[in-house]
Amino acid sequence: MKYAIIIPDGAADEPQESLGGKTPLEAAHTPAMDALVAAGVIARACHTPKVLPAGSEVGNMSLLGYDPLKNFTGRAPIEAAAQGIELGAEDWAVRCNLVTVEDQTMRDFTADHIGTDEATKLLATMQEYVTADTELSQVLHFVPGVSYRNLMIWRGVSKPAPFSMETRATPPHDLTDKSITEDFPRGPGSDVLVSLMEKSVELFKDHPVNVVRQGYGKLPATNVWLWGLGRAPSLQRFDLAHGVHGAMITAVDLLRGLATLVGWKRIEVEGATGYTDTDYAAKGRAAIEALNDVDLICVHIEAPDEASHEGDVQGKIKAIEEIDRHVVAPLVEALKARGDWRMMISPDHPTFVRTKTHTHGNVPVAMAGTGIKPDEFTSYGDTNAAKSSLAFDEGWRTMEWFIKKNV
Ligand SMILES: O=C(O)[C@@H](CO)OP(=O)(O)O
């Protein structure tokens, strides 16, 4: 049996007045996704338990079949795994966004999609500052990632990290257009995080990177925003849990990290950007090719989530349609040509274009293929999922149903 999982990140949403009461998934023209539901089932799953952040870090862990209530330790340690950074028992990883804050309001949690080269220079400035501070020089390390998504690592052997599970920090994408004044990190060790965030304002103010950016009309990176901290998680290998070898196609470190932690192969695709300008067709082609090597291919596409964070409903619809045409449609054909197959389509969490951020709640899950008997539904969407009698309140249990159903 060959399996494929498509994750249109953040694609679930609420009905929109501007779409005549449809959700973006329902307004989008998605013949391949609809055909999959017609041939199989639609279900709903909750991948974000109320007590955890309604984020991709929790949602995707659950989607891959791991109970986040037992396994989730924070977002940054997962992203550290993507970079091959090993965290010891005393170490903490912290997500270090580059952001644009204006008049104490979060103008852009991506610092206008800052380039990786520019981000690397700004992080080097933070590192220079920390290195000059004898107390923190041995423990804090700024690690560039891709664009605004970077890390800070606290090596805790010589000086224990002051953080705990009680340390709270708000994701900057939850603050778009909002005041940041009440949302600085809180709890154990937050003074260290806040002082670095404040110091970055001073260090970045006239930084050459920002001078150049403003010269060509781009927003400056005014601050680092520290959040998503945690210690290393330990996840059971996916093949030991399900007897299936998997591979991941994604453009973001969060999913690369999850793949690493569960023992999946990672496939890098040229032109995959983690944004709405990604090369959807290249991802589709890479997924088909991967079926030669692995039993399960997972394709994660960040674009619907990014369009939602920008409040761009038409951009979200376009991203969903591109996924349907360039990933789902060719992949279904390729799977069918190989014999027994199954496909699942599931977002990790809803991202509302209205609020420009993630929310807890159900996502629609389409599952079809060998051994899955069709239900009465014939199109993919949030409303049909809400009506379905197949529901996974503990979303992480969906994976077992998908892999093992009737086998
Ligand atoms: O990586 C991030 O910082 C966020 C926003 O881009 O991603 P997601 O919304 O998928 O959690």
TrEMBL record:
CDD domains: iPGM_like
Keywords: Glycolysis, Isomerase
Location of the Metalloenzyme domain: 1-379
GO terms classed as biological process: glycolytic process
InterPro entries assigned to the protein according to its UniProt record, in alphabetical order: Alkaline_phosphatase_core_sf, ApgAM_prokaryotes, Metalloenzyme, Pglycerate_mutase_ApgM, Pglycerate_mutase_ApgM_sf
Record-level Gene Ontology MF annotations: metal ion binding; phosphoglycerate mutase activity
Keyword RNA-binding applies: no
UniProt cross-references to Pfam families, sorted A to Z: Metalloenzyme, PhosphMutase
Listed pathway(s): Carbohydrate degradation
Reactions performed catalytically: (2R)-2-phosphoglycerate = (2R)-3-phosphoglycerate
Source taxon at top rank: Bacteria
Task of the protein: Catalyzes the interconversion of 2-phosphoglycerate and 3-phosphoglycerate.
Family the UniProt entry places it in: Belongs to the BPG-independent phosphoglycerate mutase family. A-PGAM subfamily.
Name of the protein in its database record: Metalloenzyme domain-containing protein
Organism: Lacipirellula parvula
